[in-house]
Design a protein that fits this description.
The chain is mainly β. It contains no helices and 19 strands. The protein has strands spanning 14-21, 24-33, 36-41, 44-46, 48-54, 57-62, 65-73, 79-83, 86-93, 98-102, 105-108, 112-115, 120-125, 132-133, 138-144, 147-152, 157-162, 169-170, 175-179. The protein is globular, with a radius of gyration of 18 Å. The N and C termini lie far apart (50 Å).
């Protein structure tokens, strides 16, 4: 007998994401139900349980099968997902935060943290705290595996806080700056 999650309480907030993965756009909806999450994929509820077991590493129980998934943000804003021997690239869109196109690219609203997409070393800082920046403008350069990756601003605004300094070693997911 399969245990069913309780239905979300009336008015329980649902977070909806569009995920482009393996050439297909899927709609993922999440709703908090007590201490658990109700997850649906393209309108169909999933029997899933997720726990973060290490930074950017998740243990996922999906329809009774266990999976370990490592998530690595990429410099272009997409994600690389590793599970077993498979690697996937995903683009996640949160319709609540995107406000439209400017210069052909989507731009986010609100205060945004800028994180290191991979482990490496900050080799150049291109802005200072308080500088005005445009969406897509380079903020700093991180070197990883002998390649230099320019980390760009996710939005137009002002560099509120700059945590990165030249020569600083960083891990994937480390916060490098805040843009407001």
């Amino acid at each position: 007998m399969e245990a069913r999650r309780p239905a979300p309480a009336a008015g329980a907030p649902v977070v909806k994401y569009e995920v482009f993965l393996a050439g297909k756009t899927r709609v993922v909806e999440l709703a908090r139900v007590e201490d658990d999450w109700k997850i649906s994929l393209d309108g169909k509820e999933l029997d899933a349980n997720v726990a973060e077991v290490a930074p950017n590493t998740f243990s996922v129980l999906l329809n009774g099968e266990s999976h370990q998934i490592r998530v690595a943000p990429r410099a272009d804003g997409t994600l690389t997902l590793h599970t077993g021997l498979a690697e996937y690239h995903a683009e996640v869109t949160d319709p609540r935060v995107w406000r439209g196109r400017r210069h052909g690219a989507l731009e986010v609203e609100g205060r945004q943290q800028v994180t290191a997409p991979m482990p490496g070393k900050v080799v150049r800082v291109l802005v200072s705290e308080g500088d005005a920046v445009e969406a897509g403008q380079g903020l700093l350069v991180v070197e990883a595996m002998k390649m230099q990756n320019e980390i760009r601003s996710p939005k137009s605004g002002k560099v509120e806080k700059l945590l990165a300094k030249e020569g600083l070693a960083v891990n994937a997911g480390d916060v490098l700056a805040w843009v407001e």
